[in-house]
Amino acid sequence: GNSVTQMEGPVTLSEEAFLTINCTYTATGYPSLFWYVQYPGEGLQLLLKATKADDKGSNKGFEATYRKETTSFHLEKGSVQVSDSAVYFCALSNNQGGKLIFGQGTELSVKP
Amino acid sequence: DAGVIQSPRHEVTEMGQEVTLRCKPISGHDYLFWYRQTMMRGLELLIYFNNNVPIDDSGMPEDRFSAKMPNASFSTLKIQPSEPRDSAVYFCASTDRLSGANVLTFGAGSRLTVL
Question: Is the N-terminal amide bond of A31 cis, ω within 30° of 0?
C-alpha cells in the first residue's frame, strides 16, 4: 500500500542554519507529493507541492524536488528562522478522490 | 472566507459520555475529511466525504465512532461511548477539485480529553 516515511525528530537548529528533512515514499503509479506545516496550536497548512517527477515545489524559502528514482521528496531551506519552528509533514496522494497519506511528522525547533 | 470552522476547540469529558465534534467546511468545497492526531499514531484519516456522501470510512476505529454530513456546510463526528484512548486532536479539512485536489484546508482542530 501507499506510505510515507520521514526522518524522526525533533530536529534542533540554530538560526540561519541549513535544514534538511528527509522524506521517502512508497506508492503505486505516479502520486502527487506535498509538505504541510503545523504551527503550535493550529491546523496543518500546505507549504509546497509537486505533481510529477523532477518538479520542484517552493514556498517561503523552502524547497523540495520530486525524485522518482529515489522515491524521495526531501525538504530543504538554506537559512532557517526562529519562526520556522513547527512540525513538518510529508504527504502523498495517488489522486484518487483527494485522499492524503501523511508521514509521522518531524518537529523542528530553531533557537536564536 | 473564514476557513474551516471546528467546534468545540477543547472538550474534556468522562469515560462513557457521548462526544460530538462539529465542522463547517469552506463554502464550495465538495470534499470533507476527518483526521485524528495523536503522539503515538500521528495523523490518521478516519473518514472522508464527497458531495456529502461517505467515500471511505476504513479508518474509523470501531463502531463507537460515527460521522455524518447532512448537507454541504456541516459535518459531525460522534463518539459514543467515549474511552480514554480516544483522547486526541481531531481535525476537519476540506478541498475541491477546482482549487487543486489534495490541497486540503484544515481547521484548527478539536482537542478531546477523555478522563
Answer: no
Predicted confidence at residue B99, as pLDDT, reads 63
CA distance B93 to B89: 13
Verify whether the Cβ–Cβ distance B31 to A98 is below 8 Å.
Answer: yes
- What single-letter amino acid sits at A85? S
Cβ contact, residue pair B42, A104, below 8 Å: yes
Between chain A and chain B, how many beta carbons pairs sit less than 8 Å apart?
60
Residues belonging to chain B:
115
All three cell numbers of A51, joined, read 505533481
What's the CA gap between A28 and A50, in Å, rounded? 16
Distance from CA of A78 to the nearest CA of B (A): 25
Provide the H-helix boundaries in chain A.
none
**pLDDT, position A9:** 83
Provide the residue-wise pLDDT of chain A in tens; the chain has 112 residues. 889 999 888 999 999 999 999 999 999 888 999 999 999 888 899 999 999 999 999 999 999 999 999 999 999 999 999 999 999 999 998 866 667 889 999 999 999 9
Spell out the residues 6+ positions from residue A20 whose beta carbon is closer than 8 angstroms to its own.
A74, A75, A76
Alpha-carbon span A84 to A66, nearest angstrom: 22
B11 pLDDT more than 90:
yes
Residue A92 CB coordination number (10 Å): 24
Task: Report yes or no: A82 and A105 within 8 Å, Cβ to Cβ.
Answer: no
Q: Is the pLDDT assigned to residue B43 strictly greater than 70?
A: yes
